[in-house]
Amino acid sequence: MTDFTKTRQAFHLPEGLTYLDGNSLGPMPIAAKERVSRMMAEEWSEMLITGWNRAGWYVQPRKVGDRIARLIGAGPGEVVMGDTLSIKVFQAVSAARALRPGRRVILSDSGNFPSDLYVAEGLARAVGAELRVVAPEEVADAINEDLAVLMITEVDYRTGRRHDMKALTARAHEAGALTVWDLAHSAGAVDVDLTGADADFAVGCTYKYLNGGPGAPAFIWTHPRHADAAQPILQGWMGHAAPFAFDLGYTPAPGIERMRVGTPPVIAMTALDAALDAWDGVELADLRARSIELTEAFIAGVEAGCPGVTLNSPRDPAMRGSQVSFRHPQGYAVMQALIAEGVIGDFRAPDVLRFGFAPLYNDLQDVQRAVDTLARILRDESWDRPHFHEKADVT
Description:
Blueprint: H1 4-8, E1 18-19, H2 30-47, H3 51-54, H4 60-69, E2 79-81, H5 85-98, E3 105-109, H6 114-127, E4 130-134, H7 139-142, E5 147-153, H8 165-174, E6 178-182, H9 194-197, E7 201-204, E8 219-222, H10 266-275, H11 284-305, E9 310-311, E10 323-327, H12 331-340, E11 343-344, E12 346-348, E13 352-356, H13 364-380
Parallel strand pairs: 1-11, 3-4, 3-5, 5-6, 6-7
Antiparallel strand pairs: 2-8, 7-8, 9-10, 10-13, 12-13
Helix pairs in contact: 2-10, 4-10, 5-6, 11-13
Organism: Paracoccus methylarcula
Pfam families: KYNU_C
Binding site for pyridoxal 5'-phosphate: 85-86, 113-116, 153, 182, 185, 207, 237, 263
């Protein structure tokens, strides 16, 4: 049984704040500050460039990848870290498409994060493919024999709607297509099982529910059946079979190592490695049960006491990730008023109040305080002050 009281103690949670925005940026793990400081003092400062060998910086992307693998239903040696999520999306989709020559269609849905769609649109234009976008509920019916790649974010970033990974993957395979799953709002939030779903490729970021810090590196997974055949368009020095031979021609490294591109961000990866300590002993079934408990309590509380908002997430917890969103005509101002009162969620255009529930550190007291504060703000209309309507650069 997972001890969530213990995992909560692993994070620095500022006094007086209720933090429900871990689906955008996780809080700082207490261990990260000391670990990064030690790395800089003992490794970078003293070892200089020899740290690539002596401190293990060069193999860090695989070692950290192995720690994430357990949280997404993957095996050892199947996940590698590095670069940004958009780069990993590009690699995964381009590799999957190349494995289905003669097929032109990349299928996604309108609930996907726009960056994924931008990447796929650019790729499609460059290689003569077609990006086809349908409503989330229309994805299954849009899968046909023209399809090369199904590119889906498992949990919708606005609504929290969760796709059925296993069913959609099976449907894509029946049509002869491959799947790429974006786990940005899944990894560390729900019980992901890539192997059990028989998925083909997956990517994800680590600064949300995995708490790696702002700009933390992304990860990529390739099913072992594709690992030595995948040929992403974007190929870099670190993905070469012998990078220090300095060959002018590219020879891909075996397995997942070929999905490395640039020099790994060692300081950021050190912070992420420290963050992953909080996951030791956490069972994914317990994580999912806790997530459902928190989101169900929040929905019930808001609907009972908060006038003027409408649920924007699936009511059935089986169809929902670990976030809940509500709509309000003045959602941005309402969220700014909430933040001013010490309850931090975020806003997504055009009118969505979004709340992420991270089982490792959120509890029912957080839920109750958020409900009570939101109810008061809506009741007395304290959100309707000029400064709450002023849009900041990041919402």
